[in-house]
DNA sequence: CAGTATCCCGGCAGATACTG
DNA sequence: CAGTATCTGCCGGGATACTG
């Protein structure tokens, strides 16, 4: 191996790192998972599924996921308020990749 | 959709969450990337590639990656000390998945 | 050279109360 | 119902100095 002044492409903002920031964090994966399994879901329904999540955290996560185009927010003009969330095409395309990641983890029986 | 008391499998310690914990964190991805590109690499060489990483963080990350079977540590009994790191088979199998994750991110031009 | 030992800080995550 | 406002604690990440 030649001793060039090699630098990993990940040192810049590479897509891989961006991806990790999108789906990283304590709850993102569960949120994506729940939305994927359930079609359109209302805020409180989602919160019930994600046992133990707080409003601050869930609302912030949903906002981030919406901003980066992974989920859509649909607000119905009703009283009391009604808002439904669902996955986007981008998110649906992500699922198979997450599946293979999951399979990989099981195959090698990864422990933390 | 039937209103069962559905619970996302991710609520337990699912493989997907485990995977994310293994490769999550600020530097894990760059470390894996650097090791993957470089065969066996010595500690300080790796540190140079990961511009800005501190000893505490690098050492801790490497220990974790070793414990979960993603990298191997080979210590040569020399003075001064010499230690080389490289990826395991498990890690090599992970790379294509990370590639597809990267591609996915580029395809949808994900911003943070 | 390849790490530990210490100390430190900012930001994620959470609890709780409140509101359109 | 679907969130915000506010406060708090903890820990991942970091700087620096030291050692087998």
From TrEMBL, chains A, B:
Lineage of source species: Bacteria, Bacillati, Bacillota, Clostridia, Peptostreptococcales
Domain of life, source organism: Bacteria
Gene Ontology MF term list: DNA binding
Limits of the HTH hxlR-type domain: 14-112
Protein name: HxlR family transcriptional regulator
Source organism per UniProt: Aminicella lysinilytica
Keywords: DNA-binding, Transcription, Transcription regulation
Alphabetical list of Pfam families matching this protein: HxlR (PF01638)
Keyword Metal-binding tagged: no
Cited InterPro entries: HTH_HxlR, WH-like_DNA-bd_sf, WH_DNA-bd_sf
């Amino acid at each position: 191996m030649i001793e060039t002044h090699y630098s990993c492409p990940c040192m810049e903002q590479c897509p891989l790192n961006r991806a990790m920031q999108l789906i990283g964090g304590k709850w993102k994966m569960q949120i994506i998972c729940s939305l994927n399994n359930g079609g359109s879901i209302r805020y409180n329904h989602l919160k019930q599924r994600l046992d133990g999540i707080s409003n601050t955290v869930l609302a912030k996560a949903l906002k981030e996921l919406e901003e980066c185009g992974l989920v859509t927010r649909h607000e119905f003009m009703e009283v009391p308020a009604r808002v439904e969330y669902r996955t986007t095409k981008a998110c649906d395309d992500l699922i198979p990749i997450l599946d293979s990641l999951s399979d990989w983890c099981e195959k090698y029986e990864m422990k933390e």
